[in-house]
Amino acid sequence: MKEANSLFSFLYAALLSEKTKKRAEIFFVSLAIISFLLHLAIIALVDLKIILINDYSKLLSNPISAIYTPFSFILIYEVYLLVYYLPKSTTIYIGKQYEIITLIIIRRIFKDLTKLELNSNWFDSKANVNFTFDIVSTIILFFLIFIFYNLNKKNEINQSKLQKTLDINSFIKLKNIFAIGLIPIFLVLSIYSLAHWIYENFFSITQIVVKIKDINKIFFADFFTILILIEVLLLLFSFFLSDKFNRVIRNSGFIISTILIKLSFGTEGVLNAILIVAAVLFGVIILAIHNKYETLEVKRVSTLES
């Protein structure tokens, strides 16, 4: 038992400590800057015909498309932050999911900027329509995430006022164990996805590259599938702590929100934007209603104490 606790403490310090988070931030930001400059350099060399590439590489034809690369590393860092906050705060953990899907859309916007057809018949082009929906979706999602975090502040205030009658240390430790297990899984997925993406865009010599799934569907579809399984397990374990109706509905609602995000990776265009916005909007509404329940509980407890 003592050895198990020592191993847990070591892994937690190595993977989920504040010091590790700071190191990860410095590493991924540095990697994003270096990759951006490297991508720009390669585009310049291609443009000067110093190096030759096949006709199917879409990310080496315009300097604007180079922004896609650093955003990929920023997204990986966001994945780490999501795992980091899993044992610390359920709502911030869910908020990080919303941040990730919004950043995916922003990255897609940078990629699709090079495909726009600038003419008077704007909506006759599929690329233009998708770009428009992505821009509108980003604005809506940015506002919804702002509301979500504001609601979370109110939720934290309510929780601080409610007396804790149950020992939640074991549940927090369980979440820490899940988080520690998730990091190597997502690390392997990230390395595979990055290698696959590099091969598709820089080394593939056949037109089949066009038909291969994009990096979002390679990594993030699997990523959100794993998150759904983890959230269901945590929901089941949470019944040992509380069977309060509003808490169960909140956690179940967050799972539904994650499932909607997962489903969005199998769609494109308008349906993709609708599913993502609906997922975040659903999570915001669920948290808002949950807060109403908690506020009533705070008033009830305050009345009994007085």
TrEMBL record:
Record-annotated membrane-spanning stretches: 26-46, 66-86, 93-110, 130-151, 177-199, 219-241, 248-265, 271-290
InterPro entries, per database record: MFS_trans_sf
Keyword list, A-Z: Membrane, Transmembrane, Transmembrane helix
Top-level taxonomic group: Bacteria
Protein known as: Uncharacterized protein
Species name: Flavobacterium petrolei
